[in-house]
């Protein structure tokens, strides 16, 4: 890992920053003067590497598969002793056939989606929470489809369930963190045109992510857990 000199610049540890929403978040934080340590899966060049080239000394890149505990342990060792203003886990995925009912999903796919969308992010958060300043923010990318109260149409059942599980695990984490001054957030970015969201989604990345980052920055001033959308509106659990 390339070491950069210490500065007073605010910093985010952004997990899952190689492309899509994570890459857009990294770009937005850079626009706002922050430094970014972003993670990517594997060793191939990504869009985050292009950002690093465009912002010398302000972007660090580490490899992390959130489903691989050994890689998480290695990242934890590399950032030992460092403090970040925000830790945000963006990594996530969907099953190959989102139209399947939960009873139709294979066991292997169920385990993979739950590991990637719920268990993996929480392992990252619990492993790296000590690297977040006492008044910092810890967040994860959820989805409006993780809302139990708002589920009146069904569909995308495994994905919905994995995000609802992530929300519940964050509620448990928040209960354990109740005595701290940290802000906690699970974010619903809206239905966005990405590889995950598909071509029919109504929002572009540019419609959502700059506003989502502004919501996170405002949330830093409010300790405790909130479930928010990209416009800062509360999403019902």
What does this protein structure show overall?
The protein has 237 residues and is of the alpha/beta class. It is built from 6 helices and 7 strands, in the order E-H-E-H-E-H-E-H-E-H-E-H-E. It has a 7-stranded parallel β-sheet with strand order 3-2-1-4-5-6-7, with helices on both faces. Strand 6 (183-188), helix 6 (205-219) and strand 7 (224-229) form a beta-alpha-beta unit. Helix 1 (20-31) packs across helix 6. It is globular and about 50 Å long. The model is unreliable at 1-6 (pLDDT under 50). This is SDR family oxidoreductase. Pfam families: adh_short. InterPro entries: NAD(P)-bd_dom_sf, SDR_enzymes, SDR_fam.
List keywords for this structure.
237 residues, alpha/beta, 37% helix, globular
Helix content: 25-40%
Low-confidence stretches are: 1-6
Give the overall shape: globular
- State the end-to-end distance: 39 Å
Overview in brief:
InterPro entries: NAD(P)-bd_dom_sf (IPR036291), SDR_enzymes (IPR052184), SDR_fam (IPR002347). This protein is of the alpha/beta class and 237 residues long. Helices cover 37% and strands 19% of the residues.
Chart the SSEs and their pairings.
Blueprint: E1 11-15, H1 20-31, E2 35-40, H2 47-54, E3 59-63, H3 69-78, E4 84-89, H4 107-128, E5 132-141, H5 157-176, E6 183-188, H6 205-219, E7 224-229
Parallel strand pairs: 1-2, 1-4, 2-3, 4-5, 5-6, 6-7
Helix pairs in contact: 1-6, 3-4, 4-5
Protein name: SDR family oxidoreductase
InterPro entries: NAD(P)-bd_dom_sf, SDR_enzymes, SDR_fam
